[in-house]
Amino acid sequence: MKKSIIATALMSLFATNAMAAEETQELREVIAEQQKVLQSLEKRLNETESRLEATADQMDENASANPFANTTIGGYGELHYNNYEDEDAEIDFHRFVLFFGHEFDSKTRFFSEFELEHSLAGDGEDKPGEVELEQAYVEYDYSKNITTKAGLFLVPVGIINETHEPPTFYGVERNGVEKNIIPATWWEAGLAGNFKVAPGLSIDAAITSGLNVVNEVTDKNAYLIRKGRQKVAEASAENLAYTGRVKYTAIPGLELAATLQYQTDITQSAAGVDEAAATLIEAHAIYQVNDFSIRALYATWDIDGDEAESLGRDEQTGWYVEPSYKISEEFGVFARYAEYNNQAGDSSSEAVETTTVGINYWLHEDVVFKADVEELGGSKDSKGFNLGFGYQF
């Protein structure tokens, strides 16, 4: 009986060993097949890497052969029709702008903006236009958090000063507060840096040329901010301007920003007038929830000097609020209320009050038709409507 049990056990053990040997052989065959697959994949990977290297080399050769391979061209333009009480209706191709940019390498870039205003420039009242170089600077990335620029660039202030292409804002004309108080579009020459100090939090700092608000104290435009833009055209640089901005965008749909600029003498040391240090404070908020958006901005200048005070232009302030609603991808409606004082050509300290309502129709996200109705009160008393068309590419 014991021998039978032992024999049965031995037979079972031999059978188990035979099955294990068979399974081991099958496993070896599977491993061998997997090794062949891995070898095939490795070969394909090497071939792909070789092709990518060849493509990169070819692209470098093409870039070397074509000096414009890393050059970009863009632009924007806008046509306006204005019809107000007590004024002749007017149609004007207000702006025709071309952008030219070039990427020298992954860290170094050039950008420029060349503009023709009012279609025709030259001597005489029948040629009201201007040819202007609004931007021409080189930008360099010192790191992923620090970018610098040198040359002629837009001052980091307000909402539309840096982003003013027609499809990006509501209304045919740019709002009066940012036009007269900030004053957009405003560019200077100098050095600037952008510092990303935390996710959604950045600081801009710039040292640039400044404004010159005095040609003659008796001139009706003396000490008006917009008339003080020198546009970097043989501009007086006796007194520079220092600008800082903090911007917060960490919350989706929200932008909060504040700018402070200080200029040691906004008269550029003009003879016969007091030295006039000037400080600009600007703050704005943009908030968008789904298809509803609201913009609000406040800006104020504080200007020293007896001459500015005697003209009532030692303080120049403006603000506006603008809600809008995107009805569809094509249509959007908006309303805007704005107040600002010391408008060009009027020494009155009474504010201009502006109420505007209108509609935008985007034929394409980069092509827009606009219409609005506007009523002006305060030191200006008029009403009318505007039609416009704009594009960017």
Automatic annotation (TrEMBL):
The keyword Coiled coil applies. Residues 1-20 form the signal peptide. The keyword Coiled coil applies. Keywords: Coiled coil, Signal. Residues 24-62 form a coiled coil. Pfam families: Porin_O_P. This is Porin. It comes from Thalassotalea nanhaiensis.
